[in-house]
């Protein structure tokens, strides 16, 4: 180890002392960064330690108190996490970065210490016992009541247990999607499921960092950019670089943040036009990293929210209002007359009057804009107007994603007609929310990509006449597995469909 255990435990204790002298409610930024290269019984890595050092330096620039640990055994890994636990207090922002071997077993992600044994087929428990469960790190941060938890895994590499002449332990190199995250957690993976992350682009690539880390670290320091934008930019840039060497690597992220989170200043538009100040480099206590949402002066806690639904005829927009209402009106934009939504043939038991129609219709080609909504409350007072943003493409993707999640049992269907066919008409109808469909024939690992026509915003549900929404299968096929990669980079659970 180039940095001794004593060094980073002392760093952890220093953080604890700092926290004890800080004001009771002060929020800190605390980070644990780990890089493992020197594995004893599985293949060594070349750039994980460099990646950890780069991320440590980057996070220090962003005002984090950072513990950097390298080449950790299982015991040392546990001690590092304990020091991290002790440094995190309620309301803090906690950042965990790991570069090294990772392994997925039955949908659970394990981070491999340097002394993980060389397991073979049937020895999954050996790997579990000798490794660190990624979900447990999230649980620990939740128990510490961290306000924001950011976890970044540059561990999407090949199966470290594969060796010639042996059958590897059942699992996968890299990590599985973490879709069920608690509120306040944001996670980023250097590559998607079953993709390997590139250390370098070619033999002439002298960059000391992996393709993901060199990009992600740079994007983190961009001023006025929130975490989602950092992840999206990183995904695009890494994907483009990988394509130059005919490799597929698309980083994915999973977002359960309530507010936008900025690590290097709040965007000027949100901060009222003022230039954001650079974060202090030597102090742990910082203002909250979640960007304050500045509502209009007349916005109340009972402001309406809207649900957008796209159909063949256009858009249906349904307003949800907490208060009992006597009437609802709306207009598009900031000028013009308000139009009443009308009434339904049903009584509202709260007002004992006819219930206002909560829905409006917009044409299929309605442009993006702001819908102004107002309502008359039960006391006869006009409330609003309240602005609701209408973004057709984003609304369509959200709507179709919701439909796909609710109709997962209809993704595929079998039919025997001049042979065995599997139809994916349902998926093709809601393709605007899908980046890629992968299926596996008589295997639980989807390894074949199905083609999709481009999304047509003018008629998104219609299937083009030249599209083929089915695939011919061998007559002996028993089942087909399917996995969706959505437009936001998240990945569905693998579903199996039997004949």
Topology:
Blueprint: H1 5-21, E1 29-35, H2 48-61, E2 65-70, H3 74-87, E3 93-99, E4 102-105, E5 108-111, H4 124-130, E6 132-133, H5 134-143, E7 148-154, E8 172-173, E9 185-189, H6 211-220, H7 227-243, E10 252-255, E11 305-311, E12 314-320, E13 325-332, E14 339-340, E15 343-348, E16 353-356, E17 359-363, E18 369-377, E19 382-390, H8 392-406, E20 413-416, E21 420-423, H9 425-429, E22 434-441, E23 448-450, E24 470-473, E25 479-486, E26 495-498
Helix pairs in contact: 1-3, 2-6, 6-7
Q: Which segments are poorly predicted (pLDDT under 50) over 5 or more consecutive residues?
A: 1-26, 163-172, 267-300
What oligomerization state is this entry in? single chain
> Share of helix among residues?
10-25%
> Radius of gyration from the CA trace?
26 Å
Characterization of the model:
This protein has 499 residues and is α+β, with helices and mostly antiparallel strands. The termini are far apart. The chain is built from nine helices and 26 strands. The strands form seven sheets. Strands 2-1-3-7-9-10 form a six-stranded mixed sheet, sandwiched between helices. The longest helix is centred in the first third of the chain and has 17 residues, at 5-21. The model is unreliable at 1-26, 163-172 and 267-300 (pLDDT under 50). Strand 1, helix 2 and strand 2 (65-70) form a beta-alpha-beta unit.
